[in-house]
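Handout for the seminar on molecular recognition.
Each group receives one record of this type.
Step one: identify the two inputs.
Step two: read the structure output and locate the region that could contact adenosine-5'-triphosphate.
Step three: write two sentences on what you found, then compare them with the reference statements printed after the record.
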Amino acid sequence: MSIDTAPIGTDEDLRVRVRGASLSFGGHPVLERIDLDVRSGEFVVLLGPSGTGKTSLLRVLAGLQRPDGGEVLVPERSTFVYQEPRLIPSKRVLANVAIGLPRTEATRAAAAHALEEVGLAGRERSWPATLSGGEAQRVALARALVREPQLLLLDEPFAALDAIKRIEMQTLVAELVDRHGPAVVLVTHDIDEAIRLADRILVLNAGGIAYQHVPDSARPRDPADASLVPLRQRLLEELHIR
Ligand SMILES: Nc1ncnc2c1ncn2[C@@H]1O[C@H](COP(=O)(O)OP(=O)(O)OP(=O)(O)O)[C@@H](O)[C@H]1O
């Protein structure tokens, strides 16, 4: 078993390489021999019923959870965005974005720029309590981006937002990922979100990758597009929704 942050092999674009990763809790297998490669700029979406190990896999990729077996190679700079924004209430928005970074003028400027990129220019001195749920999640995104991650891990980051805000955030993330080019792994329960954003959709089931699909059109996609109906049906079947 190993987690390494060394440059991966000879493939310069490869950001994540997982081979045979297994994980169990109390004798209950959660991940079983997972293989996964993710390249720079690639947007991978993990779908799957509750309890199939999606968050556990993200935690392994973040280096927060050691697998029991297998090989995991990940980049040094990865950042995690959770379903809830996890802002520090006693720090202003700009300080939240810059949290943990050296307190320099360059950091301040980078944090202000990241806020601008997520549509929150002018809110640097706001307190987290004055933000809407969507705004708070934008701050969380800015906090992730300002670190210029090579790997961006998103764990149901839009699940708590209403349908309109969720689509706005999906559009924003698609733009930001194109501009910054990290490898992305997003966990979601939302089939439309997967169809809209993914370069590759993986369905996890009982700890393994049960189904994999690479849409042939460019992202972002309109999930209402008639050509995507068969994919949606297939994903519903894979998720045992009908
Ligand atoms: N630290 C832990 N200790 C013990 N069991 C755990 C731990 N973390 C996760 N599990 C168990 O591992 C299984 C997979 O959990 P995980 O959160 O990875 O699933 P998930 O697919 O992300 O679920 P959901 O869609 O509900 O968020 C669950 O049965 C969970 O209870």
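Reference statements: The longest strand covers residues 14-25. Helices lie at 54-61, 93-97, 105-117, 133-145, 163-180, 191-197, 229-238.
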